Amino acid sequence: MIQTVGLNKSFRSGWTGGRRLQAVENVSLRIAKGGTLGLIGESGCGKSTVGRLLLKLLPADEGTVLFDGADITRYTMKQMRPLRQQMQLLFQHPDSALNPRRTLLDSLLEPMKLHRLLDKEARIAKVLELLELVGLQRDIVYRYPHQISGGQVQRVVIARALTLGPKLLVLDEPTSMLDVSVQAQVIELLQHVQRQFGMTYLFISHDLELVRHMCPQIAVMHKGRIVETGNAQQLMEQPAHAYTQHLVQAFHVVRPGRTK
Ligand SMILES: Nc1ncnc2c1ncn2[C@@H]1O[C@H](COP(=O)(O)OP(=O)(O)O)[C@@H](O)[C@H]1O
Ligand SMILES: [Mg+2]
């Protein structure tokens, strides 16, 4: 479904004296249709940058991005337009995800308007259908973001992404701002909608517990590079790279006795 080969991205950074900071280095990954790849690593290691490169929200300095068989590396904005609805980003700050001055209904309808999908009635029907799917009451649509909880905001954001029928979702720490109990519900919902629509996920997180629960395949990122990729169980039991060993060890210290 999605594949990258040798992605590089550097930023010019003020506080390193104008030198370029290599945020992402030689990142190659691939996710099969309907699959989930977990991308784990500490804050600042380049995870979000990889997600944005994948969706072409950022141009890569070097490397290739293949989406659904097409080499989209050099696609222009205009060429990307029809693909935008097929690849969506869900990110961690529920507060900034929705326009505070617009009703949830407006926010939910907006992407379909933008992409000229369906007519007005069908759009509203779609919104209502998706609200039910994400476990929200219909009458919530007349409220504003500040009138609902963080978990509800994240459900609305998921429903909004689904209005466009995406094939690929990049989930960038989608639950890191939520309470643990709400987090579990949102994760369950994400798994449910993935199965229902056969979507492909890149699941970005710094939380090994979450990643190994959610992702059969895991890529470990450290200082801009992917240092190890493998299936979750193998990675937990026999981490090959020193950094992965460190991650797994820290995980067992926090949760002694839990290996499965
Ligand atoms: N737009 C940007 N301009 C300058 N530096 C950036 C920009 N985006 C990210 N960086 C830097 O790139 C590195 C990787 O960031 P990021 O991909 O956000 O990491 P992560 O998501 O793993 O926390 C960090 O050092 C960050 O400061
Ligand atoms: Mg990030």
UniProtKB/TrEMBL annotation:
Pfam families per the UniProt record, alphabetical: ABC_tran
Keyword Nuclease listed: no
Domain ABC transporter residue range list: 2-248
Entry's Gene Ontology BP terms: transmembrane transport
GO molecular function, one term: ATP binding
Keyword ATP-binding among UniProt keywords: yes
The organism's place on the tree of life at top rank: Bacteria
UniProt keyword list: ATP-binding, Nucleotide-binding, Transport
Family stated for the protein in its record: Belongs to the ABC transporter superfamily.
Protein name: Oligopeptide transport ATP-binding protein OppF
Organism of this sequence: Paenibacillus solanacearum
